[in-house]
Amino acid sequence: xxxxxPPTTPFAHYGRAGEAVSLGxxxxxxxxxxxxxxxxxxxxxxxxxxxxxxxxxxDPLEYTGRGGELFVGFLVVLVLVFLPLSAGYGLAAVLNEQxxxxxxxxxxxxxxxxxxxxxxxxxxxxxxxLSRTRWRGIRAGQGGSAWKYGLTWLGVAVLAGLTAGWxxxxxxxxxxxxxxxxxxxxxxxxxxxxxxGPLYRQxxxxxxxxxxLFAAVIGIAAVLGVAAGTVGGESAQExxxxxxxxxxxxxxxxxxxxxxxxxxxxRRLAEGTAFGQVRFVFAPGAWALVRVGLGNLILTAATLGxxxxxxxxxxxxxxxxxVRVIGEPDFAAIRQSVETAPRTGExxxxxxxxxxxx
Amino acid sequence: MLAGRFHDGRTxxxxxxxxxxxxxxxxxxxxxxxxxxxxxxxxxxxAEALPTGGVRVTCRAEPDAVLVLPRLPDAATAxxxxxxxxxxxxxxxVGAVAAVAAMAGLAAALPHAGRVVAELVPxxxxxxxxxxxxxxxxHHGRPCRAADGKAAMTxxxxxLAAALPxQRRPRRVIVVDMEDANAVALPGGTIIVFRGLLAAAADADExxxxxxxxxxxxxLRHPMAGLVRNLGVAVLVALVVGDTSGVVASxxxxxxxxxxxxxxxxxADRGALRLLAAAGIGSDGLAGFFHxxxxxxxxxxxxxxxxQAQARAAALDAARVPGREPALPPEQWAALASICR
Lengths: 358, 341
Fold this sequence. Notes:
- The structure holds two protein chains of two kinds.
- Helices cover about 65% and strands about 10% of the residues of chain A.
- By secondary structure, chain A is an alpha+beta fold.
- Chain A has a ten-stranded antiparallel beta sheet with strand order 1-2-3-4-5-6-7-8-9-10.
- Residues about 355 of chain A have low confidence and may be disordered.
- In chain B, a hairpin with a 3-residue loop joins strand 2 (about 15-20) and strand 3 (about 25-30).
- By secondary structure, chain B is of the alpha+beta class.
- In chain B, the strands form two sheets. Chain B has a seven-stranded antiparallel beta sheet, with no helix packed on it.
- Chain B has helices at about 75-120, 125-140, 145-160, 195-200, 205-220, 220-240, 245-280, 285-295, 310-320, 330-335; strands spanning about 1-5, 15-20, 25-30, 35-40, 50, 55-60, 60-70, 170-175, 185, 190-195.
- Chain B is rod-shaped.
- Chain B is built from ten helices and ten strands.
- At the A-B interface, helix 2, strand 3, helix 3 and helix 11 of A face strand 7, helix 1, helix 2 and helix 6 of B.
């Protein structure tokens, strides 16, 4: 056992901003020239850049995915999933116009189906990415079932609505645990036993912060409404648009309690995760999370997406510098994965969620 | 000889090795001098520069194995790697161009495909679709039923439809009590005229012209073809933009769908001229409708897909068909105009 040994930082990311930005620029130009068909190959180039500039114990990761795989995966989903869904929505529209109550039922059912597909798609996308990730020639992978994950995803979304959000820490942890516990590197599996319990302290702060903000905005709107005298017609509309505007402006205020919750979440997730004998520590501060998140938001939005590879590289660097490891795996005991890898890539997620660069 | 590290792709262990290059390939020896591998030169894959310095080389004969070296052991391998890289880049460009060409082809084929598919849709399905939409419109505007007005409408429609084969004629033409100066053709052969059109029309010829236009839409099954085509447009846009919900996608879908529907409109204008000529009704009524549409600030919804009313009016004027007699005698036109009383 490696307990007692001081934690080390074997992860490192060497991606430079200049290289990332030029990659983003070239991708943007090629996207424009090809009506965005290039995006599958562009995404692949970004991943290759991110992976190859990330080292673990001195050896870099390798991304072996290809743009064509993403393209084919996308086409398959377009034909097999998107077309039937569109037809379903068309049918629902016709039923609605006929005043048939089945129309509304069909719309809700399709909404649930799309929700499920987003979850299942994210799972498949992760499976694809891991299967195309190598380190020292050994492939990573992900077992489990996309169906099951999709259903869980759907279930926790419904549950979050029913419990006014109070199920979120529990369900966030459930989903993260499911992902981690099905992650493999070669023949070695990750295990994860993290639970949400203590996170409710941080989450409560966030939840009541939200509630307070809502109450304040609605209160001010009501006072304004009374002051305006006549609630109705245009003044009501103006007040409603004020309320929406105020909420949007106040959202950044909530990013700090949210980051505080997320920081605690990551810390706890890492504590509960093991890779054989190896344990993990990942304890970034809430303020650091806000800086990375907001910084990336600005980098991406202000550059019309050209800064996206840079933003992704910043996340890699952030994670690499903050993840500490206790112990070292017995490398010779980790053998090549015998799992078959998916042949095409992440179509579902690319259609329904616009899955990011990684 | 060049010192490096070798990962055999079977376990995650890393072992120090030395590489000895010869004409045939590379000999990889362990630190005790035993030969571990011989990589034949044609099998040696492209070298990838590592961010920490050095290069990573793989071998086609054992794709999981990785050799990490401070540099390539000979110039020949480096040149071969560069050549492969260039070829891959060219292949990528060719692929992207082919993909764009394929999409352009799809976009060009879409109107034709829409019509072919529309012809394959069973009449019963198409009728049910159209009736659903019609019911919704009738829900908002009461159908007008004055007996003499309906008789006048039947006279006009029968007269205009005489030039069409039986199964291409409209199944039902009704007037609903709504203010838009508007008429629509629905899937399944229903034409709905809004009272506003009758109120705005200068004479029966103008109504006849609009009806002839809508009847051509019905005869060519444009409404159904349009539905099919819009589905195709949605797929194409999703293919290009990649999101199915975003603002970009819906804007692009709308723009593309409208561009296609303009072809239908021009075709319907030409068809209307033929129907009017066969019925001996002058085309000035239809042209007058567009002239007014071009003048009035608020373009009727009937025209919303095609803002170039002026151009269409001019085209109709150029192809002017003279009339033998008014589309309806004065008392019948009066009855039709007041069908909603």
